[in-house]
Amino acid sequence: MGWSSAAAQVQDATVGARDVAGSGTVELDREALYRAHVDFVVGLLSRGFGYRVGGEPRFLKVQGAFDLEDLTQEAFVQLFRQIEKGNFDAERPVRPYLGRIATNLALRRFRYTGREIPYEELDVPVTAEDCVENEECRTLIETFRGTLSARERDVLEAYYETEGATQASAGEALDLSRDQVARSVTSIRKKAIRYFKKRGWFE
Amino acid sequence: MRHERAKVLIEKQFEAGPLPSGDWEDLRHHLRECDDCRAVYDRHGELEAGLGGGRVLNAARRERMEAYQLGNAKVAEVVPLFGRWQTWTPLLAIAAAVVLYVSIPAEPELVARGSGGASVSFVKAFYETETKEAVELKDKLPKAAPLLFTYTNGAKSEYRWVAIAGLDASGRAHWYYPEYATASQPEVLSVRIAQGVADAPMPDRVFAEHAKGKLEICALFSKEPLDVKTVDVALEKTGRWPSEVERSCLSTVVADE
What is the pTM of this model? Predict the structure, then answer.
């Protein structure tokens, strides 16, 4: 499972660590650690990873929104727990260790529930699972956008569709307060639920 | 957790952002076991991803996951029926020193559930003066003064929900702490409280138009969310709190300043 490049490992060794008052003791900063590696964990689980069972290659991909979020959260909980217990050497790169935690958690959850994909079926396209790959969902999103106000469309673009955006950054880009963005986001979400419900999306 | 409650929370999370941490943990445990509810969650996730241009870790999901991971989700989300005001954190220090007191008649001064301090649950009431001081609520409540509350809920308390209401001299019930009804959750329910907390402030000042005269304020603790309307209807019919609801009450008098 080669999920870390050499460059990432070098970077990884210092991300999220701070020297406590110049004492030479390195302490891991949970918040920085989480923000530095959450994309990696989510990417690893959602793109999938290979492993072997009795020598046979297999592939596991976490597809459901809940499992993805829950496993990611659990992976970091486990990581922080190991740090607290002193089981993790702060000098070592975090990413490979965290990746192993995440994949082990996923394997434990799915191995016996038939959600693995044998290697020979990897080329089968995933359909109707991801909205972007599902034509019906894509069409619904497009027509839904047409029902939004101009401000809501701007917020949709600045918040949802912009890489790395936050409500604060979207507000800055649109010259709105964070509160105004938050209210627009809530309005968009409520409208989306009603719109998609009416069209049978949740059935 | 019941399926209906899980689905309400899923929709609420999607519409309004991260849930209070207690609700999220309950939902999370339910979804690990319930395939149907997990499918509903996943469906909402797909919609969210669709809104975000197909990004797996779009802004909404990122902010929500971070809130849960780093503990930024609210402990208890409470929205009073009669207006929302600024958070009332400075009064926590005062609350620690002032005697709270809402007690059932047979056990003055303390509402205890079960044995031992770890099971204690009670609510404290104050009113705010014009100079923004919090004064313990005893015999008199100035008519225009906003109310403030803190709650204590023992670590071993079986109660996870509270509704706080007042019954004034005209027989009208004022619901200070239920949740707002929404289109997706039309029932007005009591609010979630944490366990193992002492003198935790309810986040808002509560303004209500009480009739002058006797006012009875009651905290209704429960293990499941209380449907406020059910209690309200019974209260209106009989003028008395339903006997099957556990409550702790304080009597005061609403008067001019």
Answer: 0.52
A165 contacts on B by Cβ (under 8 Å) = 59
CB contact under 8 A, A160 and B58: yes
Cα B105 to chain centroid distance, Å, stands at: 23
Neighbours of A47 (CB within 10 A): 11
Convert the pLDDT of each residue in A109-129 to its tens digit. Answer: 876 554 444 444 443 333 334
Distance CA A143, CA B81 (A): 36
At B31, the amino acid letter reads L
Minimal Cβ distance to B38: which of A64, A73, A141: A64
**Given the DSSP bridges, would you call strands B140-142 and B191-192 parallel, antiparallel or unpaired?**
unpaired
CA distance B184 to B186: 6
Query: What is the DSSP track for A68-107?
Result: HHHHHHHHHHHHHHHHHHT-S-TTS-HHHHHHHHHHHHHH
Report yes or no: B128 and B205 within 8 Å, Cβ to Cβ. yes
Helix, strand, coil share (%) of chain A residues, nearest 5: 60, 10, 30
B83 token code pair: 């207006």
**Tokens representing residue B8 in the block:** 């309400």
**Phi-psi domain of B200 (left: phi exceeds 0; alpha: psi -120 through 50; beta: other):** beta
- Compute the distance between CA of residue B30 and CA of residue B69 in angstroms, rounded to an integer: 18
Q: Determine the distance in angstroms separating the CA of B19 from the nearest CA of chain A, rounded to an integer.
A: 14
Residues of B with CB under 8 A from a CB of A: 11, 14-17, 28, 31-32, 38-66, 68-70, 183-184
pLDDT tens by residue, B58-98: 888 888 899 899 875 543 333 333 333 333 333 333 333 33
Distance separating alpha carbons of residues A65 and A59, to the nearest angstrom:
18
**A148-163 exposure pattern, b = at least 16 Cβ within 10 A, e = fewer:** beeebebbbbbbbbbe
Q: What is the DSSP letter of B33?
A: H
Q: Determine the distance in angstroms separating the CA of B192 from the nearest CA of chain A, rounded to an integer.
A: 21
The answer for B110, left when phi > 0, alpha when psi is -120 to 50, beta otherwise, is beta
- Evaluate whether ipTM surpasses 0.90: no
CB neighbour list of residue B14: distance below 8 Å, 6 or more residues apart: A189, A193, B44, B47, B48
Can you tell me the mean pLDDT for B31-52?
Answer: 89
Which residue type sits at A72? T
Among A10, A71, A12, smallest CA distance to A45 is for A71
- Residue A41: partners with Cβ closer than 8 Å, 6 or more residues away: A72, A75, A76, A98, A99, A102
